[in-house]
Design a protein that fits this description.
By secondary structure, this protein is mainly beta. The protein folds into two domains: 114 residues, M1 Pyruvate Kinase, Domain 3; 73 residues, no CATH class. Helices cover 13% and strands 34% of the residues. The chain is built from three helices and 17 strands. It has an eight-stranded mixed β-sheet with strand order 2-1-12-11-15-14-13-17. It has a three-stranded antiparallel β-sheet with strand order 4-3-16, with no helix packed on it. A three-stranded antiparallel β-sheet has the order 6-5-10. A hairpin with an 8-residue loop joins strand 1 and strand 2. The longest helix has 11 residues.
Length: 219
């Protein structure tokens, strides 16, 4: 098995960026989901309720600063766009604590499961896509580990999917049938909630080894 794709989402719930190489720290891919949207009441806003956010792309510049469509995340122009989507008083907030993740810091998908899903893999919003995986083999991985060079990842659970899978990542057009299909065919679960056991640099093309012995995970 090998890494075929790496994706980072510097601004939570917006479109992300494809990478060739990235450092994986204790809280997942460096720079992942370091900025989020809050409404005027201070509540986190996501594309589940405001899918227009998916029409904007979060990236990092060479200095590690988050950008939205190529503009600094805290610029007046970006703020104006956010208020148009999430209402007056909405803003972007930078926060790098563990609570910024909905579940765990890493989401991993496999090419076999993506093929069975039958739709654009970006609907699943994975950080890492692993290739050369037969069918739905990933469903047997929870409780095991994945070794990528010096890095070690713990596989906790299959991810329970939400309505975000119903939105086209390019047009934001909704098809609720896609989410319903995940529940009918995959018991609502697709891809893997994971966490970092050992940090390291990971690169597209790196070999991935599945640990055959279960680990006593503390996460």
């Amino acid at each position: 098995m090998e890494i075929t794709k790496l994706w980072r989402y510097p601004v939570k719930t917006m479109a992300g960026e494809s990478l060739q190489r990235v450092h994986m720290g204790g809280l997942g891919l460096e720079g992942d989901r370091v900025v989020h949207v809050e409404n005027a009441q201070g509540r986190v806003v996501t594309s589940r309720t405001h899918p227009a956010l998916l029409g904007h792309q979060g990236t990092l510049n060479s200095d590690g600063e988050p950008l939205v469509d190529g503009r600094l995340w805290n610029s007046p122009e970006v703020l104006a766009d956010i208020e148009k989507i999430a209402g007056q008083g909405a803003k972007l907030v930078r926060y790098e604590g563990e609570e910024r993740f909905d579940v765990l810091p890493l989401l991993i998908a496999t090419d076999g499961a993506i093929a069975a899903f039958g739709h654009d893999f970006r609907r699943l919003r994975p950080n890492i896509v692993i290739g050369s995986v037969e069918g739905l083999a990933e469903r047997e991985w929870p409780g095991q580990s994945l070794r990528i060079g010096n890095a070690l990842i713990g596989v906790k659970n299959l991810r329970l999917r939400c309505i975000m899978t119903s939105f086209d990542p390019d047009t934001q057009i909704q098809d609720k049938g896609i989410t319903q299909d995940i529940y009918q065919r995959f018991d609502g679960k697709l891809a893997l909630d994971c966490f970092v056991i050992q940090e390291g640099e990971i690169v597209v093309g790196d070999k991935v080894e599945l640990g055959l012995d279960e680990i006593d995970f503390v996460k």
